[in-house]
Design goal:
With 174 residues, the protein is mostly helical. It is built from eight helices and no strands. The protein is elongated, with a radius of gyration of 18 Å. The relative contact order is 0.10.
Length: 174
């Protein structure tokens, strides 16, 4: 049974849902054609687009995840969870396996390691240009592991991306 949950979301959860809600709802042009998505669907759509996940254009994927998140929230509330606890469970369901995008990791490397070489106004274009060229580096790592950043594999990936970026900059510049 569909219902609006917008006013039930707490603002003290680590992700600022109120600003995310505003961002999603106020970005009508970006979300044009997606007006039939639920709150969870719109949140996920914005998250996938912002972090350049491949699933950003997969409406079936977004709907399925959003439906599962809403069901998780409803089930948790029926089991007696407070609204913030149910919301945390729903968001975990919504974003499970989607915490690390190739784009976000590469952008982090460029921002942290190459701030002097790649000016801030050129970073977006640089990362987008470099991303397809380092795809093979990502292929050996499981980015769907929600604890990936805590693993030694994350450090290895970070180091490999740093090296690949150095080679690219030496060869082609920004």
């Amino acid at each position: 049974m569909p219902f609006l949950l917008l006013d039930l979301f707490p603002t003290d959860y680590p992700v600022n849902y109120q600003s995310a809600k505003s961002k999603v709802m106020n970005n009508k042009k970006k979300n044009e054609g997606q007006t039939d998505f639920s709150y969870y669907g719109l949140y996920l759509l914005d998250y996938l687009r912002t972090n350049k996940f491949e699933q950003a254009d997969d409406t079936a994927f977004i709907r399925e995840r959003a439906d599962r998140a809403a069901e998780t929230y409803e089930r948790a509330r029926l089991e007696g969870y407070p609204a913030d606890g149910a919301q945390e469970l729903a968001m975990d369901t919504l974003l499970r396996g989607l915490h690390y995008s190739r784009y976000a990791i590469l952008r982090e490397v460029v921002e942290n390691e190459f701030a002097d070489e790649v000016p801030e106004e050129k970073r977006e274009a640089f990362v987008l240009k470099l991303l397809p060229l380092v795809g093979n580096v990502f292929s050996v790592y499981d980015l769907s592991d929600d604890n990936f950043a805590l693993s030694s594999d994350y450090d290895l990936l970070y180091t490999e991306l740093t090296g690949a970026t150095v080679l690219y900059l030496d060869e082609y510049g920004v």
